Fold this sequence. Notes:
- By secondary structure, the chain is mostly helical.
- The chain has helices at residues 31-49, 57-67, 75-88, 112-119.
Amino acid sequence: MSDTEFRHGKKRFYDNLKFPRGFAKSGHFTLAEEEMLVLFGDTMSGLELGQLTPETKEEIHFVKVLKQPGKAKSKLERVWLKYIKLARDRRRIHVLASNGNSKNTEPYEDYSDSADIMMD
């Protein structure tokens, strides 16, 4: 992590609302990605919200990437975009239920009365 000009956050970054067990334990981030988010996430969040002014070339490029995600080059930029997508996008929920538009349109027939007749 020392090969970057990006500032470390003033505090460790966690998202206890979306990732209460940690980034890596969520199954979406690797241990290295979790370390990047914890160390630099506070700075990246501050830059995104406009609370911090970019001071280095990397931070200036990071702010540009927030407006144009396709220009992401560094691991930090890509992991922040991944975090944004997972934390802020609506999650798709797949349910196993019918919406009532099945192809089988035959009505259900109740044969319980005929069974009673046969038993007599």
